[in-house]
Amino acid sequence: MIFNLSKTRSVANVFIAELRSSAIQTDSMRFRRNLERLGEFFALEISKELEFIEMPVQTPLGIASCQQLAEQPVLATILRAGLPLHQGLLNVFDQADSAFVSAYRKNKKSGGFDVKLEHVSAPDLQDRTVIMADPMLATGLSMVRCCKELLSGQKIKALHVVSAIASTEGIAYLRANLPKARIWVGAVDDEMTSKAYIVPGLGDAGDLAFGVKI
């Protein structure tokens, strides 16, 4: 399943437009906040796919029967760019556990790049629903590598992948290598540069959110 937010009538598309705008994205605080807002929208949409149970809630005047999540998901992200998107998901799933993967691209002299993993921190994922967030899904190599490392040896209930902007190539790669994953994206672009940046995309989300790295 692929959910493309840009195909819906939603105010969230205003935040996607601001994320893309080279004039507005110079304000790093606003850029982070817009990613956070998208995370909140995606959390709401993903919640419609989760299991709920009826539970009694004591009010000042009686008892109300209310729907509650049957279990909390695990929110995972790829450091560092994924942090604002992760925070948005956490704002909604505020009792959820979190997992983090530290990864980076290492360019090859011959062209292209490898994905290097440095650290994984995660709770027990057995029989859990996992939501993995990263703002950009370009080639899909980083997402697939990080998901497979995080989920290695564990049988999860479901995997949801969340990105602000994706490429058609990245989605195809993700579907081929993680066929059971449900994909949630803000928008899909058709092109990429030779350095695997999405076009028109929005640039380097990590640099825009936290400053240019060396």
Automatic annotation (TrEMBL):
<dbReference type="Pfam" id="PF14681">
    <property type="entry name" value="UPRTase"/>
</dbReference>
<protein>
    <submittedName>
        <fullName>Uracil phosphoribosyltransferase</fullName>
    </submittedName>
</protein>
<dbReference type="GO" id="GO:0016757">
    <property type="term" value="F:glycosyltransferase activity"/>
</dbReference>
<feature type="domain" description="Phosphoribosyltransferase">
    <location>
        <begin position="13"/>
        <end position="211"/>
    </location>
</feature>
<keyword id="KW-0328">Glycosyltransferase</keyword>
<dbReference type="InterPro" id="IPR050137">
    <property type="entry name" value="PyrR_bifunctional"/>
</dbReference>
<dbReference type="InterPro" id="IPR000836">
    <property type="entry name" value="PRTase_dom"/>
</dbReference>
<keyword id="KW-0808">Transferase</keyword>
<dbReference type="InterPro" id="IPR029057">
    <property type="entry name" value="PRTase-like"/>
</dbReference>
